Amino acid sequence: MLTIGELAAYAGVTVRAVRHYHAKGLLPEPERDRSGYRRYDAGAVVELIKIRTLAQAGVRLVRVRELLRAGEQEFATAIAEVDQRLRAEIRERQRHRERIARLAAGDNLALPPEVVEFLDRLRALGVDERIVRVEGEGWIPLAAHSPERVSEWMARKREQIADPRFLDFYLTLGQALDRTEDDPRLLEVADRLADYITQVADEQGEDYIDDADIEAPFVELLDALVFAAAPPARRLIELLRQRGWTGWSKLERVR
Predict the structure, then answer these.
(1) Quick check: 57 pLDDT over 70?
(2) Lower CB count within 10 Å: N or C terminus of the chain?
(3) What distance in Å separates the CA atoms of residue 210 and residue 249, rounded to the nearest whole number?
(4) Alpha-carbon distances of 24 from 18, 53, 57, 233, rounded to whole Å
(5) Bridge partners for 252 per DSSP
(6) pLDDT 10s digits, 59-114
(7) Alpha-carbon gap, residue 245 to 255, rounded angstroms
(8) Dihedral in degrees, nearest 10, Cα atoms 162, 170, 116, 108
(9) What is the dihedral of CA 230, 231, 235, 240, to 10 degrees?
């Protein structure tokens, strides 16, 4: 016969856990011996191991009590369901580990290959690294939220980057990063950006300027990323509004 301490040690739990299971009605309390101590047999060890295993698998104690009283078929079915849930959790945690590993290795590895290719293309064309970094950070939440649309968006980006005026748009933005918000030279930058946007909109249609159809919360998120990395961007938006356009991540003509 075993003491409560020996029982706990055999089952791999604490004495406190044994008492807790007693209180919950999961493990029957044995009679005490003449010295007033509880004494447990081998059957108690088996029951306690079952309780511990189910509890550690995330089964609620109320359900554990039901399963301990269930028939063989019901118990086997319940165990299969627990196993299926644990397998799903393992797969999900593995996906989380992969995402964390990609982030730890660098932002680019958290992005789809075609986005990484586009960012590398911007670098090769001489776009300021700060602009490339902001662009990449913006694509991380977009790709995570709407992975099925990345190929569509990238196809348009590749088409746009082939236009010298679009490249000049990026290069002009890079120049703006070195300006303070009160720098009068921002006026010239705003003029160039507005001219580019207006020309393309007149030739290709306004949908060509912004056809991503990004949801409002993501527009705000992307704009916040830009404003944090490039403080002059907020001033540029004000200047662009004066020139007939509004928005940053989502450009629209002022009506």
Answers:
(1) yes
(2) C
(3) 8
(4) 10, 16, 18, 61
(5) 246
(6) 888 888 888 888 888 888 888 888 888 888 888 888 777 666 655 555 555 688 88
(7) 9
(8) 180
(9) 10
